[in-house]
Amino acid sequence: xxxxxxxxxxxxxxxxxxxxxxxxxxxxxxxxxxxxxxxxxxxxxxxxxxxxxxxxxxxxxxxxxxxxxxxxxxxxxxxxxxxxxxxxxxxxxxxxxxxxxxxxxxxxxxxxxxxxxxxxxxxxxxxxxxxxxxxxxxxxxxxxxxxxxxxxxxxxxxxxxx
Length: 162
Fold this sequence. Notes:
This protein is mainly α and about 160 residues long. The protein has a domain of about 100 residues. The protein is built from 5 helices and 4 strands; from the N terminus they run αααααββββ. The protein has a two-stranded antiparallel ribbon. Strands 3-4 form a two-stranded antiparallel sheet. The chain is elongated, with a radius of gyration of 24 Å. The N and C termini lie far apart (about 50 Å).
């Protein structure tokens, strides 16, 4: 929490300082133009990278794999896009770093090691799995009137009901 508070205080101060320094060196109008230009270039790059990531998500899902890395890349791309829309050179630099495929994939690989991803489940039932770090309840559900493939009914009830 304190880390986020520091970021929200320090980053705007750094941005203002950089804008004042650049504005003093090249002038106010060229500085504003540079900020707008970086936003336009960044959004074009974001569009290209986002579509590429979306295509990889679709390919992984069609092959039956969980696109965990691609989903995290999408999150990094969204944050990078928000940083590019924020006026300033410091946030633009961080945003462009997130749009660079090599840096983004390096960051995502570090994040994947810290994120737990569970895949699977049982149709018509549930699984309770106790993990050392936390508990996870997995399962699927449906309304009473629905029928599902492979389910047999006896006297209006599912066979496993008593």
